Amino acid sequence: MKEVGLALTFLAPSLIIFSVFFYLPFIRLLDWGRYKSQRGGLSYRYVGLSQYREILTGPEFTDGLRHSVLFVLYTVPAGLVLGVLLAVAAHRPLKGIKIFQAIFSSTLASSVAVSSVLFLFLFNPAVGFFQVGWKEDPDMALFAAALPSIWQNLGLAFVIVLAGLQAVPEEVMEAARLDGYGPFRRLVRITLPLISPVLLFLVVVLVIFGFQAFAQIQIITNGGPAGASETLVFKISRQSQNYGAGAVLSIGLFAVTLVVTFLQFVLLERRVHYGDE
Questions:
Q1: What pLDDT digit, counting tens, does each position of 210-221 carry?
Q2: Cut 0.85: pTM above it
């Protein structure tokens, strides 16, 4: 009993914080989803679960989910692969390599807003270095909004993977060289399996970041053209006059993120190799 009491004592601050800032607001959000806005948000009418069925099966949610999934597919693989390759290239005892490591990780130093404005002008069709009209093209607008995230994901992946590489025993790599493993074979057969827990963490975090993206879309495309780049978070932000619909969309996003994260752990952890195995 003493151990249980001690554990509850240490857990109490976290439980209180989670209750005040997550559990109670989440329950309140569930309740708001049962009320439908009337007269532009001046009053609300209780409709029960019918609003959940109406919105979660309607085009507002499905279109937003499709755009969110596309945004994740644009940002996560590209940022992860580029970050891993740069980390592997920068993980070597060369003179001045710290300078390159600082440059590769510098994308984390800027905020999402700053990165988005940078890419907005970089690809401006009139005065940009690359004069393309991607943000006016329905097929390319979401990709244009994803570029700042790819750039920032690259830096995050580089820093975390580089830390993972530094924990790989040099004796293992030397043994692989003596066995005749070339650079590519060492990367695929030795390095990636040894840092697989790091890669699992990165994939989960980057996917969650992708589903939560908002600022880059608002700055670069503002959801356009004709709603072609409106993700779920962006659609939620537009429900300022309809708290009920916004609550339902938020619950839907939470459920999707939870399911995707769970599936990642279930499917990807089979390929993760821990040091004690």
A1: 999 999 999 999
A2: yes
Contact 210, 75 (CB under 8 A): yes
pLDDT tens digits along 113-142: 889 999 988 888 887 788 888 888 999 999
Question: Is beta strand 43-46 parallel, antiparallel or unpaired with respect to 35-38?
Answer: antiparallel
Higher pLDDT, 191 or 156: 156
Q: Quick count: other Cβ atoms within 10 Å of Cβ 186?
A: 17
**Cα dihedral 212, 213, 218, 224 sign:** negative
Distance CA 192, CA 23 (A): 38
3-state helix, strand and coil shares in percent for the chain, rounded to the nearest 5: 70, 5, 25
Superfamily of domain 61-271 in the CATH hierarchy: MetI-like (1.10.3720.10)
Task: Give CA 78 to chain center in angstroms.
Answer: 12
Given this model, what pLDDT does residue 188 score?
81
Determine how many CB atoms are found less than 10 A away from the CB of residue 84.
Answer: 25
- The answer to whether 90 touches 100, Cβ cutoff 8 Å, is yes
In this structure, what are the phi and psi dihedrals at residue 50, rounded to the nearest 5 degrees?
-65, -35
Give the sign of the dihedral formed by CA 144, CA 241, CA 21, CA 65.
Answer: negative
For the chain, domain boundaries: 61-271
Provide φ and ψ at 157, rounded to 5°.
-65, -40
